[in-house]
Amino acid sequence: MTTSLQTLSLQIFGVSTGFVTAGAITALSYSTVPIFLEHPNEISLRHLCALFSSGSHMFPQLATAASSAFSILAYNAPTSSSLRTQYLLAAAGCIGIAPFTIFVMKPTNMRLKEMGEEGQEGIEKSGGEQRVQELLRRFGRLNVVRGTILALGAAVGLKAALSP
Q1: How far apart are CA 61 and CA 31, in angstroms?
Q2: What is the pTM of this model?
């Protein structure tokens, strides 16, 4: 089977963007959350707010781009082919971080953001230093799950791309 340059480009783009974005999301949990836990909560929350801001301008767009590439590949796949289903699953996996973030992570993220914006007063009002530590750990765990969802989408896309 011959592969067109367009198909090959979309496969490379979708798979690489999906995996790189998943890695970046997951790396935040393993690299920044432990650092946040070692520093005073007020400072950590301020930095976490900056992290949320920069991440919100990057990760959703990259996940959408990977999902779009897989969606185009699904659209162009033969209708009777399992490739169409595989590319649709890959697209759903990549964009799946959006509903996960909104419905599962948002309450934790918003509480951390509110505490960060309110400073020490917000920390005390929300249950104290221990509560901040619990929420930071929860954010770290949920963020790993989010990265894994995206990585699974990219893996399904890779499997489809390597199919004969």
Answers
A1: 22
A2: 0.89
